[in-house]
Amino acid sequence: MNDRIKELRDLLNCANRAYYVEAQPFMSDREYDERLRELADLEAAHPEDFDPNSPTQRIGDEPVKGFTTVRHVVPVQSIDNTYSVEELNAWHDRVLKRLEMPEQGDDDSLFAGNDAVVWICDPKIDGVAISLRYERGSLTQAITRGDGEKGDDVTAQVRTIRAIPLQLDMQHDPPDTLEVRGEIFMPNAEFERINAQREANGEPLFANARNSTAGTLKSLNTQVVAERRLNFVAHGRGEIVGWDDVTCFSEFLKRIKQLGIPVSSHTRRCEDFQEVIETIEQFREQRPELGYGVDGMVVRVDSFQQQRTLGSTSKAPRWCIAYKYPAEQGVTTLLKVDWQVGKTGALTPRATMEPVLLAGTTVQHATLHNIDEITRKDIRVGDTVIIEKAGEIIPQVISVVTDKRPRNASPITPPTTCDACGGPIEKEGPKLYCVNPECPAQFREKFKWFVGRDQMDIVGLGEKLVDQLVDVGLVKHFADVFTLNKEQLLSLDRMGEKSADNLLAGIERSESLGLHRVLAGLGIRHIGSSASKALARHFADVDALRKASLDELIALPDFGEITATGLHMFLNSPQGRETFERLASVGVDLSSPMYVQQRVESPSPVSGKTIVLTGTLEHFTRPELTERLEQLGAKVTGSVSKKTDLVISGESAGSKLEKARQLGIEVWDEAALMDAMGNEPLDSDAPA
């Protein structure tokens, strides 16, 4: 290997470790970038020295095509929260009581006295949970928390984050398999830098750092992720093969830090619970100085043996708890109120205020929720208001300091027309709606929803590209996206030939997804994924749906008068008719494969049944089997109850299977399901 290549790789990896793990940087960003460019040039000249874990390989050449759902080997549980010292002490007492209970047939306690329990206090960072999997020291997979059982594979995005090592320090003998869990977050300074840049470019501002982090990890363009300078801190473990001598959490943190994985410098090991309380109180004062969002302190039992003894509930481990700090409040002046239009036409009042530092970030905007809330709190422009971040995330106006109200404070009156289009406004409950379906503000947001993953699933058509297409006038209606050509796409900013070809292929694929995806994507009020599937099961195509009477729609399962009335009005409006006619004219399939499948000559044995899936399936992914069963007339839900008719169980089924047996619910494995179907092919090529 070229000596300079090896020298540069070692230097850059050491620089990352010094900055993110040791907190002792020795290289400026400019010098790092210069060395990285030098390394990239040398690697290009010496392709025989290619290494997938080189610092130059953090970003791929092409955007990723989409996200794959992956099952966690060890499920990711939630952590119970507490908001007072009294509740924290009560949890402590429960832990001691459980640990002092002898094993069945054993009269000896696990320990004698409270001092035998060691506690760990670890800051609860306000970011996005991630599981990093290392095989023989190399990063092989990064999975989001998802629903706890499965998450999205975001390995390509995570590889761009310099805080996360691609290769562990092999001198410290990493285990064959090491799954580290932690938090990816955006530092406050980076959040403010990005928002300042977006404001200068005339782009909408991000609401908060956590949501920005989540959105960044969902970007298919890894260059965008790299530019956002996300950070990472480890706080837990998943599957580990090896390290049998690691018996406590504090030792686990020590070992992974030796391997080059960042851990919090604010983690504290406490010998008694009074020290835990003191640590929490001391850290409360440090939070604003950290430079990133922390909304609490996680307290856990250090010993893994004691953790196993304590066990878990169906939702959360009993051996740890999160103490949440009260939301920080600030006082500022309300300058003006704007009404923002969402994809359903709902108008949300947004307050602009004098900037105020709150929970480590500068806050200038807050939600006022709705006009009824404004009236109830008697909020007026010019008022001195108290604001706080709900859950350290969303700023909101809590109350008015009425004794500081100026004489010229003006009441906030609801708009009678939409600022975006001039269309009429109607009030439904506490909310205001623009009822013009061609409102450009609604269309931009509706179009972003329409092309999304769970709707028309047009891979590669993210928010930035949607904004471009709308801004230059190439897309003014849902149907316009299906008429785009390569020449038009190549005229857009940062659009290359390969990206254009991939996008056109994604658009073509989406044309055949069927009626339920179209209905879910149009942004019709109250019509989401579940309602659209119910409609697709009962109507063969859009023509049959449009002929349905209001009474027929009301009679559908889980449909009420409000949902049915809104849908009926849309279907029979000039705008609704035009929408479906234009979609049909550009080749979008408006028939329902779900309707066809449930009316086979021999009725499906799952038709009409409420089904729950649990465990790891051998022949299908969970989404594939869910959609196939729904096509055959079943209703698939996420939890077992008395209304459940059938549970389909795969390998490593957990609490859902146990509950099904307790309730006497019928359980099938995959073989029984396929046998009941007469060995019908339940493949992923079935119409979706």
CATH homologous group name of the largest domain:
DNA ligase/mRNA capping enzyme
> What is the second-level CATH architecture of the largest domain?
2-Layer Sandwich
* Domain tally: 6
What count of helical segments does DSSP give?
A: 25
| Low-confidence blocks of residues | 101-115, 597-601, 680-688
Task: Report the biggest beta sheet as strand number plus sense, adding barrel if it closes.
Answer: 7 strands, antiparallel
Helix share, percent: 25-40%
Terminal CA distance: 51 Å
Structural class based on helices, strands and sheet pairing: alpha+beta
Shape: globular
> What portion of residues belong to β-strands?
15-25%
| Structural Rg | 28 Å
CATH topology of the largest domain, anyone? Answer: D-amino Acid Aminotransferase, Chain A, domain 1
What do the pLDDT scores average to?
84
Topology, number of strands: 24
Q: What is the CATH top level name of the largest domain?
A: Alpha Beta
Structure explained in plain terms:
This protein is an alpha+beta fold. The chain has 6 domains: 3-58, Helix Hairpins, CATH 1.10.287; 81-324, D-amino Acid Aminotransferase, Chain A, domain 1; 329-417, Beta Barrel (OB fold (Dihydrolipoamide Acetyltransferase, E2P)), CATH 2.40.50; 440-510, DNA polymerase, domain 1 (Orthogonal Bundle), CATH 1.10.150.20; 515-596, DNA polymerase, domain 1, CATH 1.10.150; 600-676, Rossmann fold (3-Layer(aba) Sandwich). It is built from 25 helices and 24 strands. The strands form 6 sheets. Strands 12, 13, 14, 16, 17, 19 and 20 form a 7-stranded antiparallel beta sheet that branches. It has a 5-stranded mixed beta sheet with strand order 2-11-10-3-9.
